Amino acid sequence: MLSLPDDAVLEILENLEWKDALACRQTCHRLESPVRSSVLLQYKIELVACGMLDGEHGPYTLPVHERLDRLKLHLAAWQNLAWTEYSSLTPLIGRRQHRTAQVFPFSHDGDGSLEPKSILMQNLPSPLRGIEEEHITLTRAIAHYIRLDPSQDLWMSVNTQVLPAGLLNTCSLTSISTGQPHPLARNGSVIRLSPQRTVVDICGDYILESPLMGYTLGCVVRNWKTGLVKADKRKPWTTAGQGLQYWSPNGYFLDESFVLLYTYTMDMDRRQQLRGDVSLFIVPINPDDTRLYRFFLPDFLQDTARWSERVIPQSEARGALPQGCFSPSLDDQLISLCATTRNNDQPESHLLIDIPVRTLTAYIHSHPGAAGARVAVPWADWGPRGARITQEAIANPAATARMDRISVSGMRRLVVRSDAPHAVTVADYHPRRVARALARGDPAVVRGGSVDGAQTLLPCIETTIPLPEGPARTLAEGRMLSVWLQENGVLFIDTLERGGSIRNAWAYTI
Amino acid sequence: MPTIVSVDDSTVPGEGSSRLLLLVSSDNKHIVVEEDIMSRSRFISKQVEGFEATSQRHAILLPFSSFVLNKVIEYCSHYRGYYLLEDDPDAAPPGRSPVREWDQEFLDVDRNMLLRIIKAAHYLEIKSLVGSCARAIADMIRGKTTEEMREILGVENDFTPEEEHSPSSKCTG
Fold first, then answer.
1. Is B69 an 8 Å CB contact of chain A?
2. For residue B1, is it within any domain?
3. SS3 labels along B103-149
4. Do A2 and B169 touch (CB under 8 A)?
């Protein structure tokens, strides 16, 4: 080995993956320098350290050395946040719909009637990642509740009809590109869902139906291509109790194996939330796996606690959208909860609870539990080490506006604060990016936080900068400002009111 | 010692227009091989161009044993007439050399032999063979610890204890 010429040694080492390259670097001096000098190996190591995956390689794609340069610039841009020139996107008109996947749908009212006539999907461009601005217009009768999965060309709309016999929920599966019934939906493109108000999510071949509320908690996982039920997780579960009802305003696929249901219990007699009962239920998708995990949140989250938003940018997570030269890794997702503590004699305070999905899945893997086990995990067992809880001065904390001030993408969470002047804080929880920042003594690393005596230890990299001029003016003038954090940058949207027409949009892309 | 041998310039009957080359290994074995088999080697091709320029053909001396040379000739014979992108001097270098099943079987040899073949392939400038050997060697150390890698590659730890514990050699950079 030692007598081999340098370029042959390099050729051998460049076949290695990052882990082996690092191990090899420590064998001897002779092998250390080629690992350090190889652009390809540096790129592989850098990708891992940044939590990114390599994009496609082909005759017309960027060479490795240029990817490495861009990757470093991309990371530096996130570490030293600065508002660059904002780009004006294709005019965003109409009303903002629920964000779904990594696209941002807007509905056009057309003649001003309440029924949206078409939906414009906007994808933020990224000069560094080589992703161009993209927008697609959907024109077909639009249901109010839609889910999009551009990676599968799937557009799912849920329709609810009130019939004498009760509610009839159906979902239609349409191809985004043609507007016709989706060609892979075998038994017709309309699936009849459970007759309850449901929250729906898509993951690969499967859709999730989780009832918004009910005396029993559960969900149904169905193959949307065949319409057949893969797992019905409703029956074996415990009921809430006398006069109590489960409310699950959010449910989605954590990954290919687990479903997450964010749940609290309502006391139906008093019409209020049960105290100290906010939890994350994790349900295995496998129909034979009857385990159930319940992760409790701190019991001072009373009265209200809700999602900042639907957090998993699923299409990018499933890895099939336009990737550019590198893209965020699939496993790295963050759940961000916005909660309120409210005591009658004290002003409302806003809490943010950031939970990396790894925290939950790692706990389940290390505590496999017996078949059919009901595992209750108190906050103290998982939260202080695996989550971060902070008190945030959230801008304009009118109840309806709060949720639009927080946005999550991958392992980053952005919040618009009401400190003077209005500021934007980005917290990055990616374990390897944090480890690296710690190793070089970066002062931006913050260790945990504490609220009401609840101490958390999870570290993150936190950067705060003042709002750019346009969005700051919007807030100052008392209008509605929504933020959208993406791997490619930040989008600010100025609307008259929640769900109202868009007046202005600023995109700061990386 | 370099013996200048003149090689018969006539074509071999039944084998098209390929001329013969005389290769001499380090253990002084003389091996006659058709020129177009070895044309995959940039080194040999350059030698042949030299013959044409000077109209004088002589034996090509190679610094490795006949055992290794025969293995390389076997490889070149197998791919005789095949176009492999990596061996095309005019083509842009491919990002990653393709996995060829035959090569994997062909290179199912012990570590020392593999190192000798890659060295020979490098000397002869046969890029496709260097690539396949490199992959095979990398496969041997994949997933191994640093200590196991030293054993497999036959290298000594020459780091001082300070270097070994310095963060620059440990952390991801």
1. no
2. no
3. HHHHCCCCHHHHHHHHHHHHHHCCHHHHHHHHHHHHHHHCCCCHHHH
4. no
For residue B76, give its domain range: 20-156
Residue B9 resides in a domain: no
Cβ distance B155 to A28 less than 8 Å, yes or no, reads: yes
Among the ranges A322-326, B7-11, B108-112, which has the highest mean pLDDT value? B108-112
- The answer, for A29 touching chain B at a CB cutoff of 8 Å, is yes
- Whether B144 and chain A come into contact, CB under 8 Å, resolves to yes
Q: Mind telling me how many Å the CA of A10 is from chain B's nearest CA?
A: 9
Q: Which residues of B touch A45 (CB under 8 A)?
A: 172-173
Share of chain A above pLDDT 90, in %: 11
Tell me the pTM.
Answer: 0.79
Segment A419-442 mean pLDDT: 88
pLDDT tens digit sequence for A112-139:
555 556 666 666 778 888 777 777 676 6
pLDDT at B12 over 70: no
Q: Is the CB of A33 inside 8 Å of chain B's CB atoms?
A: no
ipTM of the complex: 0.81
> Would the CB atoms of A8 and B119 count as touching at under 8 Å?
yes
Please spell the DSSP secondary structure of A149-200, one letter per residue: EGGGTEEEEEEEEEETTEEEEEEEEEETTTSSBPTT-TT-SEEE--SS-EEE
Q: What is the CATH number of the domain that holds B48?
A: 3.30.710.10
Domains and CATH numbers, chain A: 6-77 (no CATH), 81-509 (2.130.10)
Predicted confidence at residue A314, as pLDDT, reads: 38
Chain A contact set for B173 (CB, 8 A): 42, 45-46, 49
